[in-house]
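Narrative of accomplishments. A recurring question from our advisory board has been how the design workflow behaves on a single, concrete structure rather than in aggregate. To address it, we present the structure tokens for one chain from the evaluation set, followed by the sequence designed for it. No filtering or post-editing was applied between the two.
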């Protein structure tokens, strides 16, 4: 048996050298931060008041092990970085310095307001510094922390103790709402094992270019192989950068959820106080933040700093049972979308007394008691608003693995994975038929990515498998997708314009909103920008957009062939009056 602080951890780094500087301005635009900052101005959350932890593996510097960031670096001016594991003064890790800059730095991060950081070596954090890991059952519970977010930009293993480490990590997230962000190994098919990435309750991160270790490690009957990892990706060249960038987003969103108490309004409980005495509102709970990140992620990108994500779930081999892509998880981080999901506020299910009809186009719900046991609901229904245009729906249902935990001095690692499903049902027909469902039996997230047709009366519905009493976080967004291609209008260079003005689109063209519906003419089907008229000239652009063979453009169902007969369907989709040439071929 290993005593506290003596856990042997074999660490392998995703990157051993100093990570290159990032193109911060372009990166921030790629993840939606620039747009959010333009909208919110000085009110943009920056992580102020959120304490964080940086956990680092050791690198060799002058023959000694180094893991502490250089506190003299300009990124850390005005910040307090506590040396929790006793690093020698003057012995600093370039890897830790770069990761810290991406996580909470003054210039490179999106959470520069974070000012209180605790830094650990990975061996100490997993041993006597935090987790108190020992082999076998028993021992004290993990220590509490005033930090809300921890970043882990290393991969490695703890021989003989991996499962026990993961159970302690998952218990820490579940019990204290202490979010753990973990970078997976670099390189598709890498042999490096990102042990912590196989935990259920963490946020596992990868790279937009797909060069990331995928899947979970088989450890025991609970921590099995084949689960979807990563949860989401970032346009980084290294997972050591992707993890702290996403951890930075978690920090700023946690601040937003905390500083806006009106966002959390569950009639039973609007929050909890963890063991460290930190008030955690529903909008900043681990399940809710993870769900908001996953529901807000982009499945299609137009990046300036990385390879684009364009073939999401394009092959059966990449389609996971919980509605994600095995390579990219929920897609690429988009803090703009995730922020506005949280700002949509907590909206309860019909069964929990939401008598206002449909939920809003963006929002979340934290349900503290669900599953049918002990008086909890066995169904949760969230009617969606009806719209005259097609919309892209992304929704994420997240719940934590339940670790027993035992008593303060006798940790019990027993785990229970509850099984929840999410469905989209059609309220407009008889019997509420299921349109699509996410029904994995081995995951703790279920996800929806689909087109809601114009005029459809759909609803999200959460269902348990079996009977239990547990909590979950649900997040959703509905975005206009006028061409119903799975990329929302803004990604198709559509302009959200006031009535009438001439505006440039992303391709440098000009378009108007001549019908005053809040969408530029190009969004309305006038692809040649002829004053809002949809005619034969638009079909040429339509065919150029889709090619001559593409199921997305085959609106008359002719076997994937895009031809003139599709113009009628094209015009019906957008609801525009006939142009001078009519609609017949």
């Amino acid at each position: 048996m290993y005593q506290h602080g003596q856990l042997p951890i074999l660490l392998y780094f995703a990157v051993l050298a100093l990570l290159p500087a990032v193109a911060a301005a372009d990166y921030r635009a790629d993840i939606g931060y620039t747009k959010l900052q333009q909208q919110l101005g000085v009110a943009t959350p920056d992580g102020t008041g959120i304490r964080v932890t940086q956990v680092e593996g050791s690198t060799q510097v002058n023959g000694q092990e180094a893991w502490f960031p250089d506190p003299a670096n300009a990124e850390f001016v005005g910040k307090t970085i506590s040396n929790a594991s006793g690093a020698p003064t003057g012995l600093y890790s370039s890897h830790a310095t770069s990761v810290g800059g991406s996580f909470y730095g003054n210039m490179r991060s999106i959470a520069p307001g974070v000012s209180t950081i605790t830094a650990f070596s990975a061996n100490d954090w997993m041993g006597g510094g935090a987790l108190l890991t020992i082999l076998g059952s028993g021992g004290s519970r993990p220590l509490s922390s005033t930090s809300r977010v921890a970043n882990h930009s290393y991969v490695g293993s703890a021989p003989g103790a991996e499962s026990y480490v993961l159970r302690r990590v998952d218990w820490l997230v579940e019990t204290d709402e202490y979010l753990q962000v973990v970078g997976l190994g670099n390189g598709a098919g890498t042999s490096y094992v990102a042990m912590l990435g196989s935990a259920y309750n963490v946020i596992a991160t990868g790279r937009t270019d797909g060069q990331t270790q995928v899947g979970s490690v088989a450890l025991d009957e609970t921590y099995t192989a084949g689960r979807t990892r990563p949860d989401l990706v970032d346009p980084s060249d290294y997972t050591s950068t992707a993890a702290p960038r996403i951890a930075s987003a978690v920090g700023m969103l946690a601040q937003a959820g905390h500083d806006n108490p009106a966002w959390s309004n569950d009639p039973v409980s609007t929050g909890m106080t963890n063991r460290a005495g930190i008030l955690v509102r529903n909008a900043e709970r681990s399940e809710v933040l993870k769900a908001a990140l996953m529901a807000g992620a982009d499945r299609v990108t137009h990046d300036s700093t990385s390879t684009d994500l364009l073939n999401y779930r394009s092959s059966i081999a990449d389609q996971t049972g919980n509605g994600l892509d095995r390579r990219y998880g929920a897609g690429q981080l988009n803090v703009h979308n995730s922020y506005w999901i949280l700002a949509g506020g907590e909206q309860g299910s019909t069964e929990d007394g939401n008598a206002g009809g449909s939920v809003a186009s963006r929002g979340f719900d934290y349900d503290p008691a669900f599953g049918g046991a002990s008086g909890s609901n066995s169904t949760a229904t969230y009617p969606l608003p009806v719209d005259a245009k097609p919309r892209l729906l992304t929704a994420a249902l997240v719940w934590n693995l339940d670790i027993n935990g035992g008593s303060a001095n006798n940790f019990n690692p027993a785990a229970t994975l509850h099984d929840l499903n999410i469905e989209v049902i059609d309220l407009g027909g008889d019997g509420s038929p299921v349109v699509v469902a996410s029904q994995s039996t081995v995951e703790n997230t279920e996800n929806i990515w689909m087109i809601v047709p114009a005029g459809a009366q759909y609803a999200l519905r959460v269902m348990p498998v079996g009977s239990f009493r547990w909590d979950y976080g649900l997040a959703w967004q509905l975005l206009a997708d006028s061409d119903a291609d799975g990329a929302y209008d803004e990604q198709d260079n559509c302009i959200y314009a006031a009535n009438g003005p001439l505006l440039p689109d992303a391709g440098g063209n000009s378009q108007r909103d001549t019908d005053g519906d809040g969408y530029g003419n190009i969004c309305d089907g006038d692809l040649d920008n002829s004053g809002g008229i949809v005619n034969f000239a638009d079909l040429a652009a339509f065919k150029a957009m889709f090619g001559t063979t593409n199921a997305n453009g085959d609106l008359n169902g002719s076997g994937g062939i895009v031809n003139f007969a599709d113009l009628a369907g094209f015009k019906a989709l957008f609801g525009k009056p006939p142009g001078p040439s009519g609609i017949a071929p």
